[in-house]
Amino acid sequence: MKKRDVLLLVGSPRGKNSASLALGDYLVQQLKKSGLPATTAFIYPAAQSRQRSMELAARMKRAAIVILSFPLYVDQLPSPVIGLLERVAATRRSGRPAPRRRSGPGLNGGQRLLAIVQCGFPETGQNRPAGEIVRRFALEAGFAWAGCLAMGMGGASNGRPVGELAGMLRHQIKALNMTAAALTENRSIPAEAFELMARPVIHHRLYFMMANLGWRLQARKNRASARLRDKPYATAGH
């Protein structure tokens, strides 16, 4: 490939304090060590104006490798992320004939797209529909699909840099290192990387305990502790 630049797109409203940035930035730093220039862009601020959104779409067109890192919203991508992908897909479809597309990074010598998605649910499988949506976008927009690194229990990291959580995120760090090596060498990302990324970061029981504690602390902060068991949408007699 002639172009070697990498674009990290962060699709979280938390921006610089997000787990999406932490995971994506760790991967980008590994790619930089291998000599690949990389830049980071935040989707939410760009979504505030049509011009900035179009500029971001243009940056996607110029990059050799696009890494889209975002949080799961129920079972979907955040709406600003969907808006950007729709704009890019529409532009590419109208601007030129549909290219021959193949899955896997670099298999057709064109641009590669990798997704990183994390959710607050303990089950990594909750991310599967969102990953399939991005895969479909890659097909429609002419990117070579590199795959989706999916992670559950994203809330446990609380947006801290991945390097500070080397114990808890040891499997995810190994997965990101393997991914960086594959992207640098224009190889397919090994299946082991996807499997390692999906592993639980802590024991399920501990995660539930931490999540419940955080929920109660938020309720106390907002003076809603006595209303945690309210059922405002329950139908009488059911």
What's the architecture, going by CATH? 3-Layer(aba) Sandwich
CATH class: Alpha Beta
Regions with pLDDT < 50 over 5+ consecutive residues? 97-108
- Largest sheet at a glance? 5 strands, parallel
Estimated share of beta-strand residues? 5-15%
CATH superfamily: Flavodoxin domain
Task: Write structural notes for this entry.
37% of the residues are buried. With 238 residues, the chain is an alpha/beta fold. It has one domain (6-201): Rossmann fold, CATH 3.40.50.360. Mean pLDDT is 88; it is low at 97-108. The protein has a 5-stranded parallel sheet with strand order 2-1-3-4-5, with helices on both faces. It has 8 helices and 5 strands. Helix 6 runs antiparallel to helix 7. The protein starts with 5 loop residues before the first strand and ends in a 17-residue tail after the last helix.
Task: Please specify the SSE layout and strand pairing.
Elements: E1 6-10, H1 19-33, E2 38-42, H2 43-46, H3 50-62, E3 65-71, H4 79-95, E4 112-118, H5 128-141, E5 144-151, H6 170-184, H7 191-197, H8 204-221
Parallel strand pairs: 1-2, 1-3, 3-4, 4-5
Précis, in short:
With 238 residues, the chain is an alpha/beta fold. The protein has eight helices and five strands. The longest helix has 18 residues, at 204-221.
